[in-house]
Amino acid sequence: MLNTFYLLLCCVVLSCIAFRCDNPVRKRGEVGTLKKWPDNTIPYEIDSVYSSADVDLIKSSLADLSTKSGNCVKFVPRTSQHVVWVRVVSLDGCYSDLGLAVETGLQQLSLDRSGCMTIDTIQHEFLHALGFPHEQTRLERDTYVKVLYENIQPKLSTKSDNCVKFVPRTSEHVAWIRVVSLDGCWSKVGLAVESGVQQLSLDRSGCLTADTIQHEFIHALGFPHEQKRLDRDAYVKILYENVEPNKKHNFDKDPQGSILSFGLPYDFNSIMHYTSDSFSTNGLPVMVPASQNDKSWRYTMGAGNKLTETDLYKIKKVYGCIA
Q1: DSSP of 34-61, one letter per residue?
Q2: In a structure prediction context, what are the per-residue pLDDT tens digits for the chain, which is 323 residues long?
Q3: d(CA 267, CA 309)
Q4: Looking at the annotation, which residues are catalytic?
Q5: Is 145 within 8 Å of 136 (Cβ atoms)?
Q6: Residues whose CB is less than 8 angstroms from the CB of residue 47 and which lie 6 or more positions away in sequence, other chains included
């Protein structure tokens, strides 16, 4: 219990530094690439699936976090005056975006009712929403902890029912992936070499999350982005005027994307879909739904950080695990 208190205290001190508690009138700015919440305040709404006891626990956990920060950061129920807010939902797992992830609208924070309803977990996820990554992702962490990657269960393999496997390279392997920390998160699509190594970059400063790691390894398995499908114009409109000039190629259509879709519906929530502001040059959306029927995806497309059933079906289909 004492260790938990010290951990929370450290996080509170960091939040006060990041949000400049000595200057309460400071508006949203950046610490590194962190987008902070306006007025140091996170408006929130809680999905109706939660019981009254759940709601009380969430509210009391946030009040405790705010109090321990000396009211440097605040959490308030969302009103019509708020243009950005957090929506607490019960999806698969406990997770949140890091910092302010949308220009307008909602960003989801999942507190699975079956395993996330404790004070420490609620505060943990809202600290992510405030902009703080895990302590063990610090660049100097190797001085303090050793990560035993060989003991980590690769979730992608498990969720595919072991249709695809990821194993440490041995001298018996003629082609393999070398995970490196270069500039950005990227991978070749599919097997790109006959023999030898192909690189997959997971920049330590921003790529070490489960969804990003799985995203890049799914590229390595051979899958392009969902929004590269040839039929994508029926679902999303690309606003090229808002895309960074040297990143526009990321929105080119790819016939392979359609071949590997197997006639399945377009998946806005795919782990392989960009968010609406990916590579934005001005903070405005680079993609919006093409149809009014899909307008609810305007701010949440690509925000899913879990493999969807569509993602898993495609993997199993391509690798021959289903007919």
Answers
A1: EEPPGGGEEEEEE-TTS-HHHHHHHHHH
A2: 434 433 443 444 444 434 444 332 222 233 345 678 999 999 999 999 899 999 999 999 999 999 999 999 999 999 999 999 999 988 777 888 888 877 777 888 989 888 899 999 999 999 999 999 889 888 899 999 988 866 655 566 677 788 899 999 999 999 999 999 998 899 999 998 888 899 999 998 888 888 899 999 999 999 999 999 999 999 999 999 999 999 999 999 988 776 788 888 999 999 999 988 899 998 889 999 998 888 878 877 888 778 899 999 999 999 999 87
A3: 10
A4: 216
A5: yes
A6: 87, 88, 89, 90
Give which of 308, 307, 285, 309 is closest to 236, Cα–Cα: 285
Q: What are residue 6's DSSP bridge partners?
A: none
Maximal C-alpha separation, the chain: 62
The reported pTM is 0.58
H or E, element range at 285:
none
Instruction: Please tell me whether 273 is known to bind a ligand.
Output: no
> Tell me, what amino acid is at 243?
V
Give the other-Cβ count within 10 Å of 102's Cβ.
22
Residue 152: what residue type? I
Q: Does 215 carry a binding-site annotation?
A: yes
Q: Which domains does the chain have, with CATH numbers?
A: 38-133 (3.40.390.10), 176-319 (3.40.390.10)
Q: In this structure, which amino acid lies at residue 272?
A: M
Does 82 count as an annotated binding residue?
A: no
Enter the tokens of residue 163: 């249709």
**Contact by Cβ (8 Å): 98, 34:** yes
Dist. CA 241–CA 164, nearest whole Å: 39
b/e string for 159-186 if b means 16 or more Cβ within 10 A?
bbeebbeeeeeeeeeeeebeeeeeeebe
Contact (Cβ atoms closer than 8 angstroms) between residue 270 and residue 304: yes
Token pair 């392979």 in the structure block, residue: 256
Q: What is the C-alpha to C-alpha distance for residues 12 and 18, in angstroms, rounded to an integer?
A: 10
Angle, alpha carbons 27-240-214 (nearest 5°): 75
